[in-house]
Amino acid sequence: MDSEFRRIVSHLEQTRLPRRAGETLTAWLERIDQPTAPPLDRAALREIVALHYAHWFEPNGLDTPQRATLQRQVQAWLDAEALPSGKANARVTAR
Question: 40 to each of 6, 29, 43, 57, 73, how far by Cα in Å?
Answer without folding.
Answer: 16, 9, 9, 25, 14
